[in-house]
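Subgroup meeting minutes
Present: P.N., E.W., G.H.
Scribe: E.W.

1. P.N. recapped why we're keeping a running log of single-chain structure predictions: easier to compare across weeks, and new members can see raw inputs and outputs side by side.
2. G.H. added today's entry (294 aa).
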Amino acid sequence: MTLAPALAPAGPAVSCSALLATTYQGLAGLCESLDVDVMAPGSPAGQGWADGAELAERPEFLEAFLDAEARRIQEEHAHTARRDVAASRALHGYLWSVCLLMSGPWYLERRVPLIRPRDVRISLTTGAFGIVPGGFACLPDDPAAGLPGARVVAHEEALRAELRAAVADHVRPLLAAVGPQMRRGPRALWGMVGDDLVSGIWYLGRMLDLEEHAVRAAGELLPGPVPPFPGGADFRRLTGRAGQSYLTRTRLGCCLYYSIRPAEACGTCPRTCDTERLRRFGGDAPGNTVSAGD
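Output recorded in log:
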């Protein structure tokens, strides 16, 4: 069942890419933290932009990508980041946005975009994203199942497998390229991917006031370690003094934000204890809302 029928186009579907373009526009409208523009198929990346394939395949583009992140950290936080920190923050930003561009249509409309690295564009100055819509995987009862570019799978678990595979296939080349600069091994890198896949669904659920539903969906998507993802969604509940219940989880990978702002570690960081998490949920600490990246 589609969760957000308002995202469907008003006229008849003409292509998978047109359907996804409408979904992406609606997703960006729902998710304030998703800075993305929909680009026309075949359009060039443009001056000062790189696509995902170039980041993975051309060292000069990757260096520019990491340099831009280091400059943003300096400008926003007056902090000179180590190279591994800039690389971790840059990768986290890329993963969170691209995972949400895949998981959002899956969560909202039961369609998994088949996003190739060259379909993702990123500004090397602002960090903004562009996406070129293409085909998608869907269920047999999807009205778009007969369109060119639609890959029909048998059931919900098969569609979840498509999402896991689409994310893994997309990010694998970039992880291989940026991993040496981050000084972390495959488990930590794939842990970051799983974290950002789960956190995007969680964030979207909160934006729709469907947090419980989104958490269940994320748990079904990653019920435990599913290679190459080293762990599951693993949500748990914290109980406040007045009996309030709050959902949380602990990340497997780390974006190293704590190294920039030691007193402001992410809400799901292993360094953030449950007492501090409850304090933030209760509104007693600075930055008491759970961020998109959590």
